[in-house]
């Protein structure tokens, strides 16, 4: 499958799930061996789709510490205190769509609680 087809597949997935009213996050996982271009595909999708999202947030998910730091940066951008629960609540309360990209989540056995950072009802692109 070529990159264009992959990008169209990602867009189609999120468009289909946008029409489904749910409090669950819409999660798409890009899975392949390291160095196969998952992050580049996610970045390209973000660039092509920035007009349909109120916010796009790139989160390094290789460790809990890095994920926490990313949420602190989101809090600064939103001008709120650096509290994961507060950031999640704000993103969930937006009427417009937002996208979170959890990049480099490639050691799930070592970092099992990444789901603690996933807000309900959010579009999530996850590169494994």
Can you offer a commentary on this structure?
With 128 residues, this protein is α/β, with parallel strands linked by helices. Helices cover 41% and strands 17% of the residues. It is built from four helices and four strands. α1 (3-18) packs across α2. The two termini are 18 Å apart.
Any key phrases for this structure?
single chain; 128 residues; alpha/beta; Rossmann fold; 4-stranded parallel β-sheet; 4 strands; globular
Task: Give a brief description.
The chain has one domain (3-127): P-loop containing nucleotide triphosphate hydrolases (Rossmann fold).
Strand content: 15-25%
Q: How many strands appear in the DSSP assignment? A: 4
| N→C terminal distance | 18 Å
Structural class by sheet pairing and helices: alpha/beta
What spatial form do the alpha-carbon principal axes imply? globular
Instruction: State the helical fraction.
Output: 40-55%
| Order of SSEs | HEHEHHEE
**What is the fold named in CATH at topology level?**
Rossmann fold
**Looking across the biggest beta sheet, what order are the strands in?**
1-4-3-2
Known CATH architecture: 3-Layer(aba) Sandwich
Give the class-level CATH name: Alpha Beta
Query: Any low-confidence stretches, pLDDT <50, length ≥5?
Result: none
Overall number of structural domains = 1
- Main pleated-sheet profile: 4 strands, parallel
What is the CA-based Rg, rounded?
Answer: 14 Å
- Tell me the CATH superfamily: P-loop containing nucleotide triphosphate hydrolases
Mean pLDDT over the residues = 84
Please give the count of helices: 4
